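lol forgot to send this yesterday, sorry. C-alpha cells for the thing we talked abt
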C-alpha cells in the first residue's frame, strides 16, 4: 500500500511539474479546446504575470509558475 501511495504522489508531482513547464500558448490552446468542447461561449483567456489576474479566475499556470492563464466571461 505504501508503494502505491508513493507512486501516486510521484505521478502527481511529475504531472504538475510538466504542466508548469508548458508554454503558455500551448496550455491556453488546450484549455480553450476543453471549454469549446463543453459548449462554453463568450469567454476570454488571458496570459498574465503571476498575481495580476485581477477579477478573472486563474485556470492554469505556465512557464514554470511565473505566468497564469485567467478566464473571464
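and heres what i got for the seq, position by position
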Amino acid at each position: 500500500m505504501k508503494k502505491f501511495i508513493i507512486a501516486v504522489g510521484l505521478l502527481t508531482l511529475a504531472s504538475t511539474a510538466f504542466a508548469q513547464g508548458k508554454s503558455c500558448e500551448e496550455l491556453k490552446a488546450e484549455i480553450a479546446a476543453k471549454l469549446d468542447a463543453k459548449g462554453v461561449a463568450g469567454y476570454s483567456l488571458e496570459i498574465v504575470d503571476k498575481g495580476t489576474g485581477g477579477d478573472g479566475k486563474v485556470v492554469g499556470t505556465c512557464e514554470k509558475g511565473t505566468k497564469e492563464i485567467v478566464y473571464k466571461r
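Residues 39 and 55 are 23 Å apart (CA to CA). anyway ping me if u want another try
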